[in-house]
Amino acid sequence: MKRLHRDDIYGWSLFNEGLDIDFHSVLWVRPDGNVAIDPLPLSDHDRTHLEQLGSVNTIVITNSDHTRASKSLAEATGARVLGPADERVRLECDGWLNDGDVVVPGLTVMTLHGSKTPGELALLLEDTTLITGDLIRAHVAGRLHLLPDPKLSDKAKAVESLRRLANMPSIEAVLPGDGWPVFRGGGQALADLAAEFD
Amino acid sequence: MKRLHRDDIYGWSLFNEGLDIDFHSVLWVRPDGNVAIDPLPLSDHDRTHLEQLGSVNTIVITNSDHTRASKSLAEATGARVLGPADERVRLECDGWLNDGDVVVPGLTVMTLHGSKTPGELALLLEDTTLITGDLIRAHVAGRLHLLPDPKLSDKAKAVESLRRLANMPSIEAVLPGDGWPVFRGGGQALADLAAEFD
């Protein structure tokens, strides 16, 4: 499992041959129980590493296309699984998340609209790290991109959700589920992306 | 093969379980023949992708610990292999590189000192992208690190080489062979690292 930009944030990745990008999962290591976001299948090595880091208490699924290995990880660890409230009909979860909910102290839910699934979640970790699912992604390193138009259910709403994120000056790192993370200047990368739709 | 920060730069990676970081290779796609740096073994998918991008004419090895899959790639493609002149005794190459040499137009060699091998190479691509081997690395995302002290042959010389890089304000991206690339603010990351040794 790779160290990300903080001592307490780890990640693991899987190269996707269809898109030629890495898919990513994030683990926030906390004294009161770790949180995994959109967990991909784990190698034996990373599974052992996860246990060394304290396993996982909570799994957050940002959207129904990112269930990935959530079910098997929940079964193996006993973690609760939380998903977007707008996808109750599509997902099996132990709890549902709405905009403004606090998953654990320091991890706040934002609901994004207009993406390919209803009410996709983004997560803001201690005001400085934004974790996104599918709407905000990165197929070119160091920049951020919106999901392509044909996949958006409502582009105007998607851009509005993007603008909301771009107006949060505290964001430093943006960790998309799909494509290169932006560890430095993530807020600027969001602003640059939003400016494309002005 | 992943798109990096420019249309003409690609990369592929391999997670190293011993260090819990990704190892990286870089491909610069050029009309006059592509250049690969420190090539790792390629998956069938990436091997096909490489052929679609025009295969490879030149392989550069930054140091003798980064030969990786250079030999088999050279055999498969007919590419010439270039390595650090200070490692003539350790490496089999078709040609040798010294500080200031131009591999192909736009790709300039810098020789670094004090690392674990003599005369390790760094490559400066069109003044803005720095590709490093082992001396400059990144085990924490968004930051750069020097090889640990016990591995350095001469720390003062290593820091001097680092300072030379940190004094090049044109650098925007730093792509280490080992650990997270810094696509935004790479020059600042070099300056931050150099400042640790003031």
List the helices and strands and how they pair.
The structure is a homodimer of 198-residue chains.
Chain A: E1 2-3, E2 9-16, E3 21-28, E4 35-37, H1 44-52, E5 58-60, H2 70-77, E6 80-84, E7 95-97, E8 102-104, E9 107-112, E10 120-125, E11 129-132, E12 136-137, E13 145-146, H3 155-166, E14 173-176, H4 186-195
Parallel strand pairs in A: 4-5, 5-6, 6-7, 11-14
Antiparallel strand pairs in A: 1-2, 2-3, 3-4, 8-9, 9-10, 10-11, 12-13
Account of the protein in words:
The structure is a homodimer of 198-residue chains. With 198 residues, the first copy, chain A, is an alpha/beta fold. Chain A has one domain (2-195): 4-Layer Sandwich (Metallo-beta-lactamase, Chain A), CATH 3.60.15.10. Chain A is 20% helix and 30% strand. Chain A has four helices and 14 strands. Chain A has a seven-stranded mixed sheet with strand order 1-2-3-4-5-6-7. A five-stranded mixed sheet of chain A has the order 8-9-10-11-14. Chain A is globular. The interface between A and B is medium-sized, with 28 and 28 residues.
Task: Name the descriptors.
homodimer; 198 residues; alpha/beta; Metallo-beta-lactamase, Chain A; 5-stranded mixed sheet; 4 helices; 30% strand; globular
Helix content of chain A: 10-25%
CATH superfamily of chain A: Ribonuclease Z/Hydroxyacylglutathione hydrolase-like
Residues in β-strands, percent of chain A? 25-35%
Which stretches of chain A are low in confidence, meaning pLDDT under 50 for 5 or more residues running?
none
Strand adjacency order, main sheet of chain A: 1-2-3-4-5-6-7
Largest interface: A-B, 28 and 28 residues
Number of distinct beta strands of chain A? 14
Radius of gyration of chain A: 15 Å
Q: Output mean pLDDT of chain A.
A: 97
Return the string of H and E elements of chain A. Answer: EEEEHEHEEEEEEEEHEH
- The CATH class label of chain A is Alpha Beta
Look up the CATH topology of chain A. Metallo-beta-lactamase, Chain A
Instruction: Please count the helical segments of chain A.
Output: 4
The main sheet of chain A comes to:
7 strands, mixed
What distance lies between the first and last C-alpha atoms of chain A, to the nearest angstrom? Answer: 39 Å
